[in-house]
Amino acid sequence: xxxxxxxxxxxxxxxxxxxxxxxxxxxxxxxxxxxxxxxxxxxxxxxxxxxxxxxxxxxxxxxxxxxxxxxxxxxxxxxxxxxxxxxxxxxxxxxxxxxxxxxxxxxxxxxxxxxxxxxxxxxxxxxxxxxxxxxxxxxxxxxxxxxxxxxxxxxxxxxxxxxxxxxxxxxxxxxxxxxxxxxxxxxxxxxxxxxxxxxxxxxxxxxxxxxxxxxxxxxxxxxxxxxxxxxx
Length: 232
Description:
By secondary structure, the protein is an alpha/beta fold. Helix content is 41%, strand content 20%.
Protein backbone atom coordinates (compact mmCIF):
# COMPACT_ATOMS: atom_id res chain seq x y z
CA UNK A 1 0.00 0.00 0.00
CA UNK A 2 2.97 2.29 0.59
CA UNK A 3 3.50 3.01 -3.08
CA UNK A 4 -0.09 4.04 -3.59
CA UNK A 5 -0.90 5.94 -0.41
CA UNK A 6 -1.07 9.72 -0.45
CA UNK A 7 -0.08 11.57 2.72
CA UNK A 8 -0.74 15.21 3.52
CA UNK A 9 1.88 16.72 5.82
CA UNK A 10 0.89 19.98 7.51
CA UNK A 11 3.79 21.72 9.23
CA UNK A 12 4.91 25.37 9.31
CA UNK A 13 8.52 24.56 10.20
CA UNK A 14 10.13 24.37 6.76
CA UNK A 15 13.03 22.18 7.89
CA UNK A 16 10.79 19.63 9.60
CA UNK A 17 8.38 19.69 6.67
CA UNK A 18 11.21 18.89 4.25
CA UNK A 19 12.51 16.15 6.53
CA UNK A 20 9.12 14.49 6.82
CA UNK A 21 8.48 14.78 3.09
CA UNK A 22 11.88 13.30 2.21
CA UNK A 23 11.53 10.32 4.55
CA UNK A 24 7.94 9.56 3.56
CA UNK A 25 8.79 9.72 -0.13
CA UNK A 26 11.76 7.42 0.50
CA UNK A 27 9.27 4.91 1.93
CA UNK A 28 7.32 5.09 -1.33
CA UNK A 29 4.46 7.36 -0.31
CA UNK A 30 3.09 10.19 -2.42
CA UNK A 31 3.39 13.36 -0.33
CA UNK A 32 1.52 16.65 -0.55
CA UNK A 33 2.21 19.48 1.89
CA UNK A 34 0.70 22.56 3.50
CA UNK A 35 2.33 25.19 5.71
CA UNK A 36 -0.73 26.69 7.40
CA UNK A 37 -4.19 25.64 8.52
CA UNK A 38 -6.20 27.25 5.74
CA UNK A 39 -3.96 25.70 3.08
CA UNK A 40 -4.27 22.34 4.86
CA UNK A 41 -8.06 22.33 4.59
CA UNK A 42 -7.96 23.36 0.94
CA UNK A 43 -5.30 20.77 0.08
CA UNK A 44 -7.09 17.96 1.92
CA UNK A 45 -10.34 18.65 0.10
CA UNK A 46 -8.58 18.79 -3.25
CA UNK A 47 -6.12 15.91 -2.87
CA UNK A 48 -8.21 13.55 -0.69
CA UNK A 49 -5.20 12.05 1.11
CA UNK A 50 -5.17 8.59 2.67
CA UNK A 51 -3.62 9.99 5.87
CA UNK A 52 -2.87 13.41 7.37
CA UNK A 53 0.10 14.32 9.57
CA UNK A 54 -1.04 17.52 11.26
CA UNK A 55 0.94 19.91 13.47
CA UNK A 56 -1.01 21.62 16.26
CA UNK A 57 0.68 25.03 16.15
CA UNK A 58 -0.09 26.51 12.73
CA UNK A 59 -0.73 29.97 11.25
CA UNK A 60 -4.23 30.89 10.01
CA UNK A 61 -6.06 27.93 11.59
CA UNK A 62 -4.45 25.82 14.30
CA UNK A 63 -4.28 22.05 14.06
CA UNK A 64 -7.30 21.53 16.31
CA UNK A 65 -9.48 23.71 14.08
CA UNK A 66 -8.21 21.94 10.97
CA UNK A 67 -8.96 18.55 12.52
CA UNK A 68 -12.52 19.60 13.40
CA UNK A 69 -13.14 20.82 9.84
CA UNK A 70 -11.72 17.71 8.19
CA UNK A 71 -13.65 15.39 10.48
CA UNK A 72 -16.97 16.82 9.30
CA UNK A 73 -16.75 15.06 5.95
CA UNK A 74 -13.53 13.02 5.75
CA UNK A 75 -12.63 9.74 7.47
CA UNK A 76 -8.90 9.28 6.75
CA UNK A 77 -6.57 8.75 9.74
CA UNK A 78 -5.11 11.89 11.34
CA UNK A 79 -1.83 11.84 13.26
CA UNK A 80 -1.31 15.05 15.23
CA UNK A 81 2.09 16.49 16.16
CA UNK A 82 2.49 18.72 19.20
CA UNK A 83 5.49 20.51 20.64
CA UNK A 84 3.77 20.89 24.00
CA UNK A 85 3.97 18.32 26.74
CA UNK A 86 0.71 19.57 28.25
CA UNK A 87 -1.57 16.55 28.57
CA UNK A 88 -4.58 18.75 27.82
CA UNK A 89 -3.40 19.39 24.26
CA UNK A 90 -3.07 15.68 23.61
CA UNK A 91 -6.51 14.90 25.01
CA UNK A 92 -8.15 17.71 23.04
CA UNK A 93 -6.63 16.35 19.83
CA UNK A 94 -8.01 12.88 20.47
CA UNK A 95 -11.41 14.17 21.50
CA UNK A 96 -11.94 16.17 18.31
CA UNK A 97 -11.21 13.21 16.09
CA UNK A 98 -7.46 12.68 15.75
CA UNK A 99 -6.51 9.02 15.67
CA UNK A 100 -3.22 9.46 17.48
CA UNK A 101 -0.61 12.04 18.49
CA UNK A 102 3.16 12.33 18.79
CA UNK A 103 5.06 14.80 20.92
CA UNK A 104 8.03 16.67 19.46
CA UNK A 105 10.84 15.85 19.31
CA UNK A 106 10.12 12.38 17.93
CA UNK A 107 12.09 9.82 15.98
CA UNK A 108 11.42 9.56 12.26
CA UNK A 109 11.53 5.79 12.60
CA UNK A 110 8.68 5.83 15.11
CA UNK A 111 6.63 8.21 12.97
CA UNK A 112 7.06 5.97 9.93
CA UNK A 113 6.01 2.97 12.02
CA UNK A 114 2.87 4.78 13.13
CA UNK A 115 2.07 5.77 9.54
CA UNK A 116 2.49 2.21 8.30
CA UNK A 117 0.30 0.87 11.09
CA UNK A 118 -2.48 3.41 10.53
CA UNK A 119 -2.57 2.74 6.79
CA UNK A 120 -2.45 -1.00 7.37
CA UNK A 121 -5.53 -0.74 9.59
CA UNK A 122 -7.37 1.11 6.84
CA UNK A 123 -6.41 -1.58 4.33
CA UNK A 124 -7.54 -4.36 6.67
CA UNK A 125 -10.95 -2.77 7.20
CA UNK A 126 -11.46 -2.15 3.49
CA UNK A 127 -10.51 -5.71 2.53
CA UNK A 128 -12.30 -7.51 5.35
CA UNK A 129 -14.30 -10.56 4.17
CA UNK A 130 -18.00 -9.90 4.02
CA UNK A 131 -17.51 -6.16 4.39
CA UNK A 132 -20.24 -5.40 1.86
CA UNK A 133 -22.93 -7.16 3.90
CA UNK A 134 -21.55 -7.26 7.44
CA UNK A 135 -23.94 -5.98 10.11
CA UNK A 136 -23.13 -6.37 13.78
CA UNK A 137 -26.05 -6.11 16.20
CA UNK A 138 -25.96 -5.97 19.98
CA UNK A 139 -29.39 -5.29 21.47
CA UNK A 140 -30.33 -1.77 20.26
CA UNK A 141 -26.84 -1.10 18.90
CA UNK A 142 -26.24 -1.79 15.19
CA UNK A 143 -22.94 -1.45 13.34
CA UNK A 144 -23.03 -1.31 9.55
CA UNK A 145 -19.51 -2.08 8.32
CA UNK A 146 -20.28 -1.38 4.66
CA UNK A 147 -21.57 2.13 5.36
CA UNK A 148 -19.14 2.74 8.23
CA UNK A 149 -22.12 3.71 10.36
CA UNK A 150 -23.39 2.83 13.82
CA UNK A 151 -26.89 3.41 15.19
CA UNK A 152 -28.46 3.15 18.62
CA UNK A 153 -32.23 2.70 18.67
CA UNK A 154 -32.16 3.71 14.97
CA UNK A 155 -30.41 7.00 15.76
CA UNK A 156 -27.11 7.49 13.90
CA UNK A 157 -24.12 7.88 16.21
CA UNK A 158 -21.58 10.59 15.37
CA UNK A 159 -18.40 8.56 15.84
CA UNK A 160 -14.86 9.48 14.92
CA UNK A 161 -13.09 6.91 12.71
CA UNK A 162 -11.10 5.52 15.62
CA UNK A 163 -14.15 5.34 17.89
CA UNK A 164 -15.85 3.35 15.15
CA UNK A 165 -12.83 1.04 14.78
CA UNK A 166 -12.74 0.47 18.54
CA UNK A 167 -16.45 -0.29 18.65
CA UNK A 168 -16.17 -2.72 15.72
CA UNK A 169 -13.24 -4.58 17.27
CA UNK A 170 -14.97 -4.98 20.64
CA UNK A 171 -18.26 -5.95 18.97
CA UNK A 172 -16.53 -8.64 16.92
CA UNK A 173 -15.01 -9.94 20.15
CA UNK A 174 -18.03 -9.44 22.36
CA UNK A 175 -17.54 -10.65 25.92
CA UNK A 176 -13.76 -10.86 25.66
CA UNK A 177 -11.62 -8.59 27.85
CA UNK A 178 -8.78 -6.59 26.28
CA UNK A 179 -6.16 -4.58 28.12
CA UNK A 180 -5.05 -1.18 26.84
CA UNK A 181 -1.91 -2.58 25.19
CA UNK A 182 -3.91 -5.20 23.30
CA UNK A 183 -6.44 -2.61 22.15
CA UNK A 184 -3.64 -0.36 20.92
CA UNK A 185 -2.11 -3.29 19.08
CA UNK A 186 -5.36 -4.44 17.47
CA UNK A 187 -7.21 -1.15 16.89
CA UNK A 188 -4.35 1.29 16.39
CA UNK A 189 -2.16 -1.34 14.78
CA UNK A 190 1.13 -1.17 16.67
CA UNK A 191 2.77 -2.14 19.93
CA UNK A 192 2.46 1.04 21.94
CA UNK A 193 4.94 1.53 24.76
CA UNK A 194 4.28 4.11 27.45
CA UNK A 195 1.22 6.38 27.65
CA UNK A 196 -2.02 4.46 27.11
CA UNK A 197 -4.28 7.47 27.64
CA UNK A 198 -5.27 7.21 23.99
CA UNK A 199 -7.43 4.18 24.75
CA UNK A 200 -9.03 5.71 27.85
CA UNK A 201 -10.03 8.85 25.97
CA UNK A 202 -11.66 6.90 23.15
CA UNK A 203 -13.45 4.61 25.60
CA UNK A 204 -14.77 7.60 27.55
CA UNK A 205 -16.11 9.35 24.47
CA UNK A 206 -17.53 6.16 23.03
CA UNK A 207 -19.42 5.60 26.27
CA UNK A 208 -20.87 9.10 26.10
CA UNK A 209 -22.28 8.22 22.68
CA UNK A 210 -23.56 4.68 23.25
CA UNK A 211 -24.51 4.55 26.94
CA UNK A 212 -27.66 5.89 28.58
CA UNK A 213 -25.55 6.59 31.67
CA UNK A 214 -21.83 6.71 30.84
CA UNK A 215 -21.03 6.52 34.57
CA UNK A 216 -22.83 3.16 34.74
CA UNK A 217 -22.09 1.58 31.35
CA UNK A 218 -24.05 -1.45 30.18
CA UNK A 219 -22.32 -1.97 26.85
CA UNK A 220 -18.67 -0.91 27.19
CA UNK A 221 -17.69 -2.08 30.66
CA UNK A 222 -14.45 -1.95 32.62
CA UNK A 223 -13.04 -5.14 34.10
CA UNK A 224 -10.94 -3.92 37.00
CA UNK A 225 -7.27 -4.70 36.59
CA UNK A 226 -7.82 -6.34 33.19
CA UNK A 227 -9.23 -3.90 30.65
CA UNK A 228 -12.43 -3.34 28.69
CA UNK A 229 -15.06 -5.49 27.01
CA UNK A 230 -18.33 -5.04 25.13
CA UNK A 231 -21.38 -6.76 26.61
CA UNK A 232 -24.95 -7.19 25.49
